[in-house]
User: Fold this.
Amino acid sequence: MRVLVAEDDPVIALGLVDRLETLGHEPLGPVSDGEQAVALAREALPDVYLFDIEMPNLDGLGAAARLADEGLRRPVVVITGVNDPGLVERSIASGVSACLTKPIDNRELEAAIGLAAARHAELEQLEAEVDRAQQALEDRKLVERAKGLLMSALQLSEQDAFRRLQITARERNLRLAEVAGRIVEQQSLLEPKPNSLARSR
Assistant:
């Protein structure tokens, strides 16, 4: 994986780069502050962020949050020099997938990267499921609205209106919601014109 390294201590940064290469990953950077990390992430589009929490200008959590806001959310592993439970909680609340305390060995680093990638994939899958459920709900509302328009305009029963939607979808090889959407968009065509109402009297 392509891993963006942001660490303000040059010795630790080079050590992380060496470890990543040993583990078979492609390190990007290192950069020494959060602003540089954001700029490089925009340009290089890495697979994973490996950020020190305490950095000048913009810390690791701030950099990860900014990238997520810009649509560049990736698995995040943060590094800290202190074992602070409050910091770990703040990291988790910020969407960080794994947290490492210095000094770091290869086994811990590889495990953290794997964990971050797995948690990120789970989150994306959950979000996709939520999106699908939301879309299904919107489709259902659209079908119900189209059905009501057909019932009113053509004096159909609910069952007949729904059957008409199904037949039209099948004949035109469209999704039911697509047919419903077209009916809703063209609902003015289903409404009698005022002059036709006058003539019918």
